[in-house]
Amino acid sequence: MENRLQQITAEIISIGDELLIGQTINTNAAWLGEQLNAIGIKVNRTVVISDSRSEIWAALDEASARSQIIIMTGGLGPTKDDITKHTLCSYFQTDLVMNEEALARITDFFEQRGLPVLEVNRQQAALPAACKVIHNFRGTACGMWFEREDRVFISMPGVPYEMKGMMEDEVFGKLAAFYHRPVIRHRTVLTTGVGESFLADKLKDWEKMLEERKIALAYLPSPGMVKLRMSSYLEGDRDVEMDFRQCEQELLRIVGEYVYGYDKDTLQEIVGELLRQQPSTLAVAESCTGGTLSKLITSVPGSSDYFRGGITAYKNDVKTSQLNVDASLIEAKNVVSHEVACAMAEGAKKLFSADWAIATTGTAGPGGGTDSHPVGLIYVAVAGPAGCKSIEMRLGKRRENNMDMASFAGLNLLRKEILGQKADL
Amino acid sequence: MENRLQQITAEIISIGDELLIGQTINTNAAWLGEQLNAIGIKVNRTVVISDSRSEIWAALDEASARSQIIIMTGGLGPTKDDITKHTLCSYFQTDLVMNEEALARITDFFEQRGLPVLEVNRQQAALPAACKVIHNFRGTACGMWFEREDRVFISMPGVPYEMKGMMEDEVFGKLAAFYHRPVIRHRTVLTTGVGESFLADKLKDWEKMLEERKIALAYLPSPGMVKLRMSSYLEGDRDVEMDFRQCEQELLRIVGEYVYGYDKDTLQEIVGELLRQQPSTLAVAESCTGGTLSKLITSVPGSSDYFRGGITAYKNDVKTSQLNVDASLIEAKNVVSHEVACAMAEGAKKLFSADWAIATTGTAGPGGGTDSHPVGLIYVAVAGPAGCKSIEMRLGKRRENNMDMASFAGLNLLRKEILGQKADL
């Protein structure tokens, strides 16, 4: 029992040629890393290997020499020749036996869908005698749980939502029962409008404050934002949350103007919450972002409470006919301008009878720019109760990135406008 | 030289705690796997490790025992304490020297942006004497290329577009000069509307045909589609492309009705190309997909040639006022119905003066369903020159998945309608 109280480490083995040749991105490993970390299990390493007996065997040997928990995903589909399952049988010196409970569930799975049970699916109920079965209520491949001394080996299918369901339904609970573990706590502060190097330079002294409190810091940049993640192990009587709060207050004093949220917050959720509080409603008019903004806003469940709707006005005549933008304004100022962005926002606000509207206009690229209005020049406007505000962005030539950055900037501008309005009251 | 003609293998080492705890998804490894594979270099393994000297050292030892090319990404940012760079110095028994060319580029990088050069950025120009520098024209962290016998070790920053740029600008060329390698060819057939198990069952005999031709087959399922990937090494005089074509023809004979494209095709590109050929124009009216369809269509560069625009009609009154859907129709048939989907499509077609329009209506979830109209019940309609066609989908409770699946189905329905129209001529 003694060693179970030490830091528990895990290793993730992702099995599949589709991962190695990049046809599938390994989102499973990221999700597992995040979830395990949150319950205080440290992921030492993630490896991706091909669907072969020798690779699986070697990876199991290597991982179990380093880590206590070994989690495998993939290699269990009905068309995979069951290499993983057979390898696990040999590795744990056991045999396949037909599991009646699993067979009943697989049969049920197909019958509910009005489909016949194929032999390949029946064979998925043949499982190693030495394992505990991890049930899969979302698909046909069962999971397997093996124990060897203080080590646990878990094998699950690679379909993300099946794997996640199995982890949540059974595996986290089983792991909690098997191990006691020190807890890691994180606090992430989300910033926008400032680069990583400049943040690091401004935060030199603040980092010393973190060191003294044994808090590790990570800068996590991604398009349009830099996340600052503080991490610390719970040990003794120390109040980590209090330490985080103190460091956070000091951080806000230094770079508070760039902070838009915390931890798992998304800008679209923060903006949605602000709108809900007022309460007020939102519409969008998108040219260069082509639906990205609308998709972001509606990705939040319940967004229909405040989102009135949006228009993708890809053509000038749609801007004039639907959004009532003056054709002479487009002529005089160019369609890519502060003025047209504002006219679009005002038009959308009126068209959808909304309190606020965000509009974007620009050239997302990679083609289509001119000397005076190059690819990446984008205007973002927010119209609200007190008029319209717009910003100019000079971005690069990457279409998707430009669409994402402009949408993000539009939401952030709206956030600031709502907060500024509040501050003025 | 002899051994350079054998199958060249690579291993990817991704460095960074943000990957292990899942705050960043390892898209770099997927991209590298895909690109290396395409030029005939087989990726044996991908490992993700933390930013520590002992981990990096061990991973280098292990990888170089198995593979000839070792590609590291990450651990080179100005705030990372340069652990990777110092570890590489020790590993290759060399010292850091200031690289004047790199320093000039870094200075230039900041001056062009009107920003001062910080000391942390200057230090990024201090590089191991034993490496060849891989230039980074998109950021400040240089790449490093080390050779040891027939092995190559490459270290690059983890920012995806910097790393990709460095691979394309320099590394692929350098690798081609250093190694000769057998070439792998792939051909991927894209299917929709049929499950993996059923495909596998229908294709049993066809798989034997592939085996005889030494073509490996992979089933790659993802939401709404199953990709079938054929892979083969070029060897001797064999005409792999001819083998692929023959297998493909046989495949089309068996399951041709489900095939919508090949290789890197996307449904939005295929539909765009069909519209361009006619030529005709498209609009969308989205309720439950909330902008997803518009975003998908506009993700294609040049889509402004055929995409007139779209409306996200999240509220019933927007459906009636903007899309001219009869309020009594919504009352009589429910807003989630074949009839309202078609009325929305016809409305969007007219509103945007387009030849075709796609509409979606349903409850994306996770909340909001009723007994008669549960979460996941979605209608997708396509209006065109010859009237409107709609389909019913019964999906699950996962919001994002439902939005993606309904958008995909809308595009596929439009594809079939355009092709059917062609066939009728």
Query: Assembly type of the shown chains?
Result: homodimer
Morphology of chain A? globular
Helix coverage percent of residues of chain A?
A: 40-55%
Rg of chain A (C-alpha, Å) = 27 Å
Number of helices of chain A: 16
- Sheet with most strands: strand arrangement of chain A: 2-1-3-8-7-6
- At the first level of CATH, the class of the largest domain in chain A is Alpha Beta
Mean pLDDT of chain A: 91
Q: How would you name the CATH homologous superfamily of the largest domain in chain A? A: MoaB/Mog-like domain
Major sheet details of chain A: 6 strands, mixed
Q: Low-confidence parts of chain A lasting 5 or more residues at pLDDT below 50?
A: 1-5
Strand content of chain A: 15-25%
Mind telling me which CATH architecture of the largest domain in chain A this is? 3-Layer(aba) Sandwich
The overall strand count of chain A is 17
Q: Kindly, what is the distance between the CA atoms of the first and last residues of chain A, rounded to a whole number of angstroms?
A: 60 Å
User: What structural class do you assign from the helix and strand content of chain A?
Assistant: alpha/beta
- What is the total number of structural domains of chain A? 3
The greatest interface between two protein chains, and residues involved on each side, is:
A-B, 90 and 90 residues
CATH fold descriptor of the largest domain in chain A: Molybdenum Cofactor Biosythetic Enzyme, Chain A
Descriptive overview:
Two copies of one chain form a homodimer. Chain A has 425 residues and is of the alpha/beta class. Chain A folds into three domains: 177 residues, Molybdenum Cofactor Biosythetic Enzyme, Chain A; 78 residues, Alpha-Beta Plaits (2-Layer Sandwich); 158 residues, CinA-like (Maf protein). In chain A, 42% of the residues lie in helices and 25% in strands. The first copy, chain A, is built from 16 helices and 17 strands. In chain A, the strands form four sheets. A six-stranded mixed β-sheet of chain A has the order 2-1-3-8-7-6, with helices on both faces. A five-stranded mixed β-sheet of chain A has the order 14-13-15-16-17, with helices on both faces. In chain A, helix 2 packs parallel to helix 7 and helix 11 runs parallel beside helix 16. Chain A is globular and about 80 Å long. Chain A starts with 8 loop residues before the first strand and ends with a helix. The N terminus of chain A is likely disordered. The interface between A and B is large, with 90 and 90 residues.
